Amino acid sequence: MTTIEVTVNGVNYSREVEDRMLLVNLLRDELGLTGTHIGCDTSQCGCCTVHVDGRAVKSCSMLAAQANGAEIVTIEGMARNGALHPIQQAFTECHGLQCGFCTPGMIMAVAGLLKDNPDPSDEEIVHGLEGNLCRCTGYINIVKAVKRGAELLCGNGDKSSRR
Amino acid sequence: MDHHLLEVAGTHVSRLEDLRLVTGSGRYASDWNLPGQLHACFLRSDRAHARIVSINAGSARKHPGVMRIFTGADAVAAGHTRPMTILTFKGKDGMQARVPARPALAHERVRCVGEPVAMVVAETALIAQDAAGLIEVEYEELPVVIDPEEALAAGAPQLHDSVPGNLPFEFEAGDAAATAAAFARAAHVTRLKLAVTRVAPNPMEPRACLVAYDAREGSYTVHVHVQGVNMMRKQLAAYTGVAEEKIRVVARDVGGAFGQRSLAYPEYCAQMLAAKELGRPVKWVATRSEGFLTDSHGRANFVSGELALDRDGKFLGLRLDWIADMGAYLTPTGPVSHIRNPSTCLTGVYRIPALYGRWRTVLTNTNPVAAYRGAGRPDIAYVIERLVNQAAAEIGVDPAELRRRNFIPPEAFPYKTPTGSIYENADLPGLLEKALKLADWKGFAQRRRQSETAGRLRGIGISTVIENTGAGLFPKDEVAIEVAADGAVTVYSVSHSQGQGHETTFAMIVAEALGIPTERVRLRQGDEDRPLFGNHTGGSRSTVGAGSACHLAAKKLIEQGKTLAALDLGVEPSQVEYANGTFRARDSQRAITLGDLAGAKAFSATAEGSFSSTFPNGCHIAEVEIDPETGVTEIVSYVAVDDCGRVINHAIVEGQMHGGVVQGAGQVFGEHVVYDRNTGQLMTGSFADYTMPRAGLVREIRMEEHPTPSKVSPLGVKGMGESGCTASLAALTNAVIDALRPLGIHHLDMPLTPARVWGAIQAAKSRFVRK
User: Fold this and answer.
1) In what helix (H) or strand (E) does residue B447 lie, and over which residues does it extend?
2) Alpha-carbon B303 to chain mean position
3) Which of B238, B381, B568, B636 has its CA 20 to 30 A from that of B192?
4) Omega into B83 within 30° of 0, i.e. cis?
5) Rounded distance, CA A57 to CA A59, Å?
6) Cβ(A101)–Cβ(B28) under 8 Å?
7) Which residues pair with B38 in a beta bridge?
């Protein structure tokens, strides 16, 4: 067992965890943040993507103990003051989700993608989504949502709003 | 995409469910927890076919935190052994389906890899997992059969004593003699043997279930994924022998389904056993690896097809020999889907006077097969549309022209097919012409030359399809509507979204009927405290069934409201008019709103309706480019013109079509569940080994609607959730074959992976060199 301290969505937590506990299980089972989902056991699907110290990370590929001292943002921490995060807004505007199970991971991954590359090309978007699986949408509207999210993030929300 | 957005809590959203789902506030099956819950882990068979000689759970039982270990003997003692089947019709020569028993935990024998052999229940999931690793099972291996044709052969290993020849059900449709006569006078016969490969549905949410037992009531509460609570409850009851009214199924958000959630799985029934025995709730969350092994698989149909044509290219007859691999046990939906749906649409969109099909369902040492998006409809469409394209190539006629010659003409609807289905309506020539124009069919030859110049092979593929949407397991659909004092309208349905967006579509239907903003309507699906009669979401049936019942319930609410309002307004009910949320006395200024009326008295209405199948149809045209050096195929154009009747929400319909087309593309280009022929081991047991479609596989789908409204529903809608993959399997495969035909390649089976395509090109080139 190890004692760790993490900040999740701005709240500090201290927990004693089993050495083998994954970060995703800490978030879901210990902290009750069930917005982060588990879609596979081989780190391919990306459903569990969160931000650790500002970088998009698959939280199934990291031990909770490794997150000691880290600042973590999950899907629950994206909307602020009652307003959706621009990427959340883009996903709903573009109908980029159906069942919604992959959506939290998608949104967190896209937030990471757009942080690194605020104006990605189609090729860069497709490449950037390689690590996130969706079974419902066929990805076409997800790619649109990434572009729309990029627009909203750079303050061009009205340029082609409500496409 | 041009659609208006709804306003929820000051935010603009496409769908009413979105706000919850994009903020991580959805509640999926694994998100449920109960005080005092225990955790289950299943020890699974690592043999495809074996006798269980002994199970030594001694050290596992002693592992700290383990409560109890259950095995097949416990499942048999409790009578949790009989999965339901919904095969409601008789087979060939009056044959009744032979449905083998399947104890919730394997008893004495295992018949496929992944079958649960023991269940450990412990204080935590990790303890259960650790303890499962301590159980020793001694097996005596039995011969394995994976291939369904081999399973039918004399001398094949037999799976169940109660199913001689591994043949649980045989069925025939059409007229064998008339079809033989049609073939005898044919000028040309086209033949293909086609594999509609086995695939894994893989909804993104792995399976999970939490069962609690109430000893005072003798009742169970089962938190699990559903496509509809009623179908799940009925199956759990049948499987365990527990009365239906003693089972309460609770579900909220469902992370995709595609047919996979339509089953009551053995694990759930084993958990019911444990929850009762141990007196504490028992939770189980599957891993994806367990999902690949044990979530129902889809398709797995192997079909020999023959199409007879006369001198003018008119179709004379179609004959199919259909082998449906069912896996080691029959699922409730597998056999019925792979027989009824293909036989209903056996003639496709064509006037084919003589039809005959023979279906054999076969048991093999593989995971059971059930309905998967389309459930036999994509399979039959694929077979017919591949045959039609092949025939066109063989007789040298443009594939669009061959379709034109053989379409059921618009004036022939309602059309009774030779197998007895009645197609309601369609404008097939209209669909085709619209699709040809949208795809610039005429310009293809030039585009092909351009590709050739660039050293690439270009092909165009067409498919024109029709499908029957599901009539449902229950004979009617009920919907209730309740109005609160603040005017909020709550709609209750059995039909349960797994991503289809019922909360929005049904709200729009009710809002339109009541003349109120959509945002004021909330849908509760499968509310455990508000039981209703009706069907699950499956077979593209929800808007037709539950959606129509929403409309009827809203109309009924208005009529009942008029009677109540009349008392308030002091007039006869006939003098009350309703518009936009307000009842008004015709001759006075007096009025009362829906909310105010509800404030005074409980105000609700329940309506029901029986809705038969609708027949959505469509024409899809795909264009591909293949790099002969790598075998990589790129989808360069995809056009979809569909008739799904009147459309309620265009964005949702477009999204369903995207998802369906890409699911088909996934199967065509990569997905394939593969078992080792000798050992029966699953070779594609993770996302690392199984090629799921990824972003970029289909870049764009250009869509147009070509509606012919249905009279089945008062809304004029037809189902459409499965149309995309029904059409895309054949459109995409035909495009690839078209690209390869100049090399002398006329047939390849899915999946058309770069390796398979490249291999075929290399083989063709070496044939060419030898000549």
Assistant:
1) helix B444-453
2) 20
3) B636
4) no
5) 6
6) yes
7) B282
CB neighbour class for B575 (10 Å; exposed up to 12, middle 13-18, buried from 19): middle
Q: For residue B376, which of B327, B326, B416, B411 has the smallest C-alpha distance?
A: B326
Mean pLDDT, rounded, of chain B: 96
Q: Which structural domains are found in chain B, ordered by start?
A: 3-27+471-609 (3.30.365.10), 32-142+206-294 (3.90.1170.50), 146-198+297-396 (3.30.365.10), 424-469+615-771 (3.30.365.10)
What size, in residues, is chain B? Answer: 771
- CA of B299 vs chain A CAs: smallest distance (Å): 17
Find the radius of gyration of the CA atoms of chain A: 16
Give the whole-angstrom CA distance, residue B282 versus residue B34: 9
Q: Indicate if the alpha-carbon torsion angle B286, B288, B289, B294 is positive or negative.
A: positive
Helix then strand then coil, in percent of chain A rounded to 5, is 35, 20, 45
C-alpha span between A101 and A35 (Å, rounded): 9
Q: Judge contact between B500 and B409, C-beta under 8 A.
A: no
Cβ(B491)–Cβ(B530) below 8 Å: no
* Sequence-ordered strand ranges (E) for B266-353: 282-285, 298-309, 315-327
**B604-657: per-residue pLDDT in tens?**
999 999 999 999 999 999 999 999 999 999 999 999 999 999 999 999 999 999
Q: What share of chain B is helix, strand, coil (3-state, %, to 5)?
A: 35, 25, 40
Task: Please answer whether residues B656 and B720 qualify as being in contact, where contact means their C-beta atoms are separated by less than 8 angstroms.
Answer: yes
| Residue pair B534/B230 in contact by the 8 Å Cβ criterion | yes
Spatial neighbors of A85 by CB under 8 A, at least 6 apart, are A78, A79, A107, A111
**Which residues of chain B neighbour A133 with C-beta distances below 8 Å?**
204, 687, 692, 694
The minimal CB distance from B18 to the residues A39, A97, A142 is found for A97
Q: Is cis: bond before B164, omega within 30 of 0?
A: no
User: What length does chain A have?
Assistant: 163
* Residues 30-59 of chain A whose Cβ lies under 8 A from any Cβ of chain B: 33-42, 44-45, 47
Chain B nearest-CA residue for A145 = B1
Smallest Cβ–Cβ distance between A138 and the set B22, B25, B659 belongs to: B659
Closest-CA residue to B338 (of B327, B348, B324): B324
Strand B247-250 versus strand B219-224 pairing type:
parallel
Query: Tell me: the pLDDT tens digits for B683-713?
Result: 999 999 999 999 999 999 999 999 998 999 9
User: Which among B12, B28, B288 has the least Cβ separation from residue A42?
Assistant: B288
Residue B11 backbone zone (phi > 0: left; psi -120 to 50: alpha; other: beta) = beta
Element (H, E) at B138: strand B136-141
pLDDT of A157 strictly over 70: no
The span from the CA of B179 to the CA of A25, in Å, is 61
Which of B211, B215, B200, B239 has the alpha carbon at shortest distance from B103?
B239
DSSP B198: E
Tokens 């006369």 identify what position? B310
Residue among B368, B369, B361 at smallest CA distance from B167: B361
Alpha-carbon distance of B255 to A47, in angstroms, equals 11
| HEC per residue, B344-369 | HCCCCCECCCEEEEEEEEEECCCCCE
Task: Give the span between the Cα atoms of A48 and A109, in whole angstroms.
Answer: 10
Q: Which two tokens stand for residue B193?
A: 């043997």
Give the C-alpha separation, B170 to B150, whole Å.
16
DSSP secondary structure string for all residues of B62-110: HSTTEEEEEEHHHHHHHT---------S--GGGPPP------SS--SEE
A84-143 pLDDT, tens digit each: 999 999 999 999 999 999 999 999 999 999 999 999 999 999 999 999 999 999 999 999
What ipTM score was computed for the predicted complex, to two decimals?
Answer: 0.97
Interface contact B14-A93, CB threshold 8 A:
yes
